[in-house]
Amino acid sequence: MLYQATKYIKFLLKSSNQHGVHSPFVYNLVTKCFYDRNPHDAYKTIQNYKKNLLQDKGSIKVTDLGAGSQVMKQQERLVCNMAKNAGTTLKRAKLLYRLSAYFKPKNILELGTSLGIATQALSLGNPESHITTIEGCPNISEFSKRRFKDEKLNNIESVQGDFSSEIKKITSNNYDLIFFDGNHQKASTLEYFETLLQSATNDSVFIFDDIYWSEGMTEAWEIIKQHPKVTVSIDTFFWGLIFFRKEQVKEHFMIRC
Question: 63, 152, 159, 183: least CB-packed within 10 angstroms?
């Protein structure tokens, strides 16, 4: 898309690496997590999970409750095509693994299970965590649930339902990490953010996928990072991360990953 290409060029001009970071918290995150080049054993498991999906010629009848795919419009979709066009990339899955291992979140919430690539990475990053993952499409939810069972990922609770309805049931919970990856629309993203603010603690991290998906998503990201409860925000172009650390001076970073 022209919009995303234009935004990416601007991002490259404005962003920096760890040398442009003066916050010790963010510097450590960037150097010890974002730029961790160690060959973690779990990477092979993550690679095999996605490889199996890319080789799966089965099909799923998809019900899109969000913005839908920009590539696949048909309702009956091959698993291999979904993994290729809509699934979390291997690079991002590895980063999710590192984030989970770095922060060691006890309670994780994911909006948008899809084929479970991101869910698996989060699970491997901290097997001691409890992950609640919500998927709107019944058939995709069942598919990923079976995959988790096959992979013996016992710390994942799969929930099928509409995000708006389901998250209202769990706002009394505290979440250390929330991954927003299901509905790439401005109004919905802001609604989920406002609702789940109740579940954030001082040490929570919210991760928003595809903040440059559309003008609307970018507008939502700009509103979110300016929220009075948000102290630190990090724009990696493909994700937007926010933190609520009261001890931190409000600051925005653009980091190349």
Answer: 152
Q: State how far the Cα of 115 lies from the Cα of 143, in Å rounded to an integer.
A: 7
- The average pLDDT across 124-141 equals 97
What amino acid occupies position 246?
K
Token readout for 207 is 């991760």
The CATH number covering residue 209 comes to 3.40.50.150
Q: Give the Å distances, CA to CA, from 98 to 75, 93, 167, 201, 229.
A: 34, 9, 26, 21, 25
Identify any residues that bridge with 205 across adjacent strands, giving them in sequence order. 177, 243
Q: Total domain count for the chain? A: 1
Pairing type for strands 156-160 and 200-209 reads unpaired
Q: Which domain holds residue 213?
A: 2-254
Say if pTM beats, i.e. exceeds, 0.85. yes
How distant is the alpha carbon of residue 50 from its chain centre? 16
**Structure letter (DSSP) for residue 16:** B
Is the pLDDT at 74 greater than 80? The verdict is: no
11-18 contacts at long range (C-beta below 8 A, 24 or more positions apart): 11/212, 11/235, 11/237, 11/254, 12/256, 14/254, 15/235, 15/237, 15/254, 15/255, 15/256, 16/253, 16/254, 16/255, 16/256, 17/255, 17/256, 18/255
Note the pLDDT of residue 68: 45
State the number of CA atoms in the 13 A half-sphere of 181 facing the CB.
27
Q: Which helix (H) or strand (E) holds 175?
A: strand 175-180
**Other residues' Cβ atoms within 10 Å of the Cβ of residue 237:** 19
